[in-house]
Amino acid sequence: MVDAEVRPGDVVHDLVERGKMQVVAIAADSVAAYREREDFDLAAYKSHPLLGVGDDEPVYTCVYLPDAPTATFSGTYDFPRSRLARVPVEEANADLDRIQNALAIDLLEKLFTRAAEDDENAVAVLERYATDAGIDADAVAAARELAAADQIGGDGA
Questions:
Q1: What does the pLDDT read at residue 81?
Q2: Which spans in 66-98 are helix H?
Q3: What pLDDT does 145 receive?
Q4: Rounded to the nearest 5°, which phi and psi values hold at 43?
Q5: What's the per-residue H, E or C state across 114-142?
Q6: Comparing C-alpha atoms, which of 79, 1, 74 is closest to residue 34?
Q7: Is 134 left (phi over 0), alpha (psi -120 to 50) or beta?
Q8: What is residue 156's predicted lDDT score, i.e. its pLDDT?
Q9: Residue 51 vs residues 72, 82, 113, 143: alpha-carbon distances, Å
């Protein structure tokens, strides 16, 4: 099943303007919080009757991607989640994972390897912190397994 959740780093389509963009940050946890902070009604701006923007959906900061290579970009724009469609690039190949998961696994592997140099309790605490922070449990488990294999193989980090 395709993962449609939007996260910073994702490529998305603007469903109203039809442009390709990259999500660079979470602008607000909700449209309501954004409206209060910015004094701007993002739900009404370039709204589409079929999208139905809700006050509880998150708001993302995006940059439009050019069609040709360039070092000049559009600037940043904020969008409610319902206006974005994620491009699941990891579906291009069965060996691919979401870039966010791959980066998390790489970093956590290094941290687990280092924590194991202290003691097993440090590894358990790191694992708890990672999952409490919302990192995918499968990514945390994969990183811990890779770190354990590094130790057995004498690879270190």
A1: 92
A2: none
A3: 86
A4: -65, -30
A5: HHHHHCHHHHHHHHHHHHHCCCCHHHHHH
A6: 79
A7: left
A8: 47
A9: 30, 6, 46, 38
- DSSP 3-state of 106: helix
User: Which phi and psi (to 5°) does residue 44 adopt?
Assistant: -90, -20
Strand ranges across the sheet with 59-64: 76-80, 59-64, 20-28, 11-14, 84-86
Give the integer Cα–Cα distance in Å for 119 and 105: 20
Residue count of the chain: 157
Q: What is the pLDDT of residues 64-120, one digit of tens each?
A: 888 887 787 778 999 999 899 888 777 667 666 677 777 878 888 888 888 888 887
Location of structure tokens 């890779």: 146
SS3 content of the chain, % helix, strand, coil (to 5): 40, 15, 40
Whether residue 105 contacts residue 73, with contact meaning beta carbons closer than 8 Å, is answered with no
| Phi, psi values for residue 40, rounded to 5° | -145, 130
Q: Which two tokens stand for residue 150?
A: 């590094």
Which secondary-structure segment (H or E) carries 151?
helix 137-153
Q: How far is residue 157's CA from residue 155's CA, in Å, rounded to a whole number?
A: 6
Q: Which two tokens stand for residue 136?
A: 């995918």
* Confidence class for position 157, pLDDT limits 50, 70, 90: very low
Say yes or no to pLDDT of 141 above 50.
Answer: yes
